[in-house]
Amino acid sequence: MASSLRIEKVDRPVLAQHDSTILDLVFVMDCTGSMGPYIDSAKNNIHAIIKEIVANETSNIRLALIAYRDHPPQDTSFVTRVHDFTTQANEMKSSLDSYQANGGGDTPEAVADALHDVLHLSWRSDATKICVLISDAPPHGLHQENDSFPNGCPAGHDPARLVRDMAEQHITLYVVGVEPPIVLYRDFFMALAYITGGQYVPMINAKLLAKVIIGGVREEISLDRLMQDALPDIDREMQQAKEDGLDDKIKAQRLNEIFSAKNLRSKRMKNSHGALSLAATDGYAKCPDMAEMRIQFRKQLETIPNTFATSTLTILASDINYDLMEDVDVSEDQAARLVQKWQQRNRKTYY
């Protein structure tokens, strides 16, 4: 029941009414005891990150920081601390410098509380909005082993609901997953990012953090521009796909037809080991809340072989690459993420 696309092929179009020179970027950092190298990497590279993004993509950038640890009694220093958006790189550097890796208690951390704080930052309505979560542990309530709050965040925050609220507010989540500790929860975090149209990036070398942030931001800005350029066609095709009862995979193929017909291309950071998994897209991402995600995790845990973490780390260490490719065709994963962006941003009227 496919509908034919009615698109005039043109040369690269003039950008739509969207100011892609405006960027709001927040770092959400686990500041517990195991995260020292990543906190230090962010401190040492924040000026270089800003300089490269400004030089290549945007002249108007603001940065924010949300640091998190855990709830008492697991950690008594703080649950979250929020440093709202600033245009001053030195202020951001000072905020980062105030943190050392310390504490944490049980395995899970206050991920949900940090995501809740993301929603309450002073985002600009016309900005490209990106949240980079850097973590090596799950939120409370997913894997109940060694979890002092097995039923979830004691403040009642639900990550599955929060990321949908983020997506509705046009905030794209990138998860930098510190491996191997986070391998067991990779598909869960991948789903959180996917719901917003973002991506999961596996990380085993803290020295590469700046490269990932720069590459991810530049890719996301290019996708934001692309989406704006083709928005009337995307709106029409997504509505037709709904009427035809098509699944998300076919919707993504339809969007790629639009991009090809309009000669729209993108930037793409190499992230082969963060490629979308079926467990993330067809499992966790379909769960409306953490209670359902916990059930999904239990099912997955029963099927994961004991060698999973070790074999994955070996593969990553041998050929990991985060180079940014410029002026390339939109990939299947990118088109799938754009479907999620559109659906979540329009969820009140689309579903």
Automatic annotation (TrEMBL):
Ranges for domain VWFA: 24-221
InterPro entries: HMCN1-like_VWA, Thr-specific_kinase-like, VWF_A, vWFA_dom_sf
SUPFAM superfamilies: vWA-like
Record's protein name: VWFA domain-containing protein
Cell inner membrane recorded as keyword: no
Keywords: Secreted, Signal
Gene3D superfamilies linked to this entry: von Willebrand factor, type A domain (3.40.50.410)
Location in the cell: Secreted
Keyword Signal: yes
Pfam families: VWA_4
PROSITE patterns named among the record's database cross-references: VWFA
UniProt source species: Adineta steineri
A GO cellular component entry from the record: cytoplasm
GO MF entry, a single one: protein serine/threonine kinase activity
Source organism superkingdom: Eukaryota
